[in-house]
Amino acid sequence: MKEYDTVIGLEIHVQLKTESKMFCSTSANYFGEKPNSHVCPTCLGLPGALPVTNKKAMENAVKVGLALNCRINNFNRFDRKSYFYPDLPKGFQISQFDLPVAQEGFVLVGDKKIRINRAHQEEDTGKLIHQTVSGEKVSLIDFNRCGVPLIEIVTEPDISSAEEAKNYAKKIHQLMRYIGVADVDMEKAGMRFDANVSLKPKGAKELGTKVEIKNINSFGFLEKAINFEVERQTKALESGEKIIQETRGWVEGKSETVSQRTKETSPDYRYFPDPDLPPLNFADEVLKTIAESLPELPDAKTERFEKEYKLSNYEAKLLVEDKDVADWFEEALRVYLKVGESEDETNKARKVANWVQGEVLRTVNDTGMSIKELKAEPASLVELLIMIDKNRVSHQAAKQVFAE
Q1: What are the pLDDT digits (tens) for 351-377?
Q2: Which end of the chain has fewer surrounding CB within 10 Å, N or C?
């Protein structure tokens, strides 16, 4: 049996957190609202309605680019991407083509560098709802999501397995939450994945024909869809079939990908500069201000926890995985160092880390709440630690107290 290399590129769509939509003043907080209640002439593409660029969305897009180690293009512009689909009322999507907001970045997944080709700003589409009405199968359209700010992050074809793709997607999810630009709640379509998958003979330089799997909405589905597609393409190549460039969808009920349409290429979209939107030109001072507003990012925080608190890489990564957990840990340690018994900082850091990784995260996971919702605050944990230090309670008793 011939051996093949798997080549994967991911396109991740992230809804940016803003009060209004990308090109109009309609509220972007549409989830759970009555269908077609968050719309206006602009996001519905009605004649005579003109778009205006959302400043906050563009600032968030710059933050995304900086967090991905990208080059930020001071001069960038919007283009029209023309294609017909029922949930795209204008008949085109306002996106970015040759002058996106960010290009040529990377993220580290473990020890591997995954290159970022681009991160470009665009608008989201509406949502199709397939139902049976009066015995007839119909598709209903909810345009509430139409026009919500969306940033698309596109990798180079650097990913070589489904597991690696999942880990990369999780890293992007973590970064978006860290910099505070998105909730990335996949149950609310806040983050979706398109995977470009191809196979090539092992060691060959020339890439194989890619197939795109569209609109995957969970890390688990992403891994399953890629694994299925790799197996499907392998069987096809082994039987002498030719892989065609197409768009496929993941059907979870059948655990398989299905063909949707022949894949368009850039010329098919007929990109051209949007005549209603002026190009954007970010001043260097503005970009500097945005860069200075970014928080400490996960990789840097992990490295600092290892050096400053002498934690293992595993311990540091566990604490840093969620920014709120990392902040909770550091606040507890700050209070402990200030009011606790005189003791080596490293020992105190390890005690707090052990409790946060143990009882605190166990409570968070068991209750399904966030760490911000815990009744026990960082200072509460410190009170317990001081009682343990003074032999007023045993470690086991303190766990019971914490649980209460």
Answers
A1: 999 999 988 898 888 888 888 888 889
A2: N
